[in-house]
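Subgroup meeting minutes
Present: P.N., E.W., G.H.
Scribe: E.W.

1. P.N. recapped why we're keeping a running log of single-chain structure predictions: easier to compare across weeks, and new members can see raw inputs and outputs side by side.
2. G.H. added today's entry (201 aa).
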Amino acid sequence: MEIKDSMTHVINQGMAMYWGTSRWSAMEIMEAYSVARQFNMIPPVCEQAEYHLFQREKVEVQLPELYHKIGVGAMTWSPLACGIISGKYGNGVPESSRAALKCYQWLKEKIISEEGRKQQVKLKDLSPIAERLGCTLPQLAVAWCLRNEGVSSVLLGSSNPEQLIENLGAIQVLPKMTSHIVNEIDNILGNKPYSKKDYRS
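Output recorded in log:
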């Protein structure tokens, strides 16, 4: 109750226009929405959730119901899975990469794990699709996130201006993300989560 009351105050004072949640469950978001409506407060409008080719469950199964029932959109983050989808880890962990840093040991372990190696194989299998669409693998991954109707925005974590410019190129790829291309990607990934109703385009 305090969060909803505080956010309503912040918005009413003109310090913010909207508020959203981060890493809340669908049940928590629905509860916040219901309580806000019941007590004439302002409900959250978005959920910040991790979403990329290898992390799909929450955005594709849990959030669509909220999107369609109460209009809560997803503000997604980590479209390149902390750089795993960038393509730079296809042959191990380069010394100049983030995963080589001591504080990112967890990322290195994730990349060199059996699951990480399987992910790199899948990324190599996706490369011909990116080539056909005239884009890079990171651009394909960001466009894939953007094509989901419940995704309001994708937060990019670029390390330098060149990466930002490359990632922004995903906007040019988005119109090419046909249902045929999405199905092709799904077949390669083999991780499309089960849902009662498919809300994606």
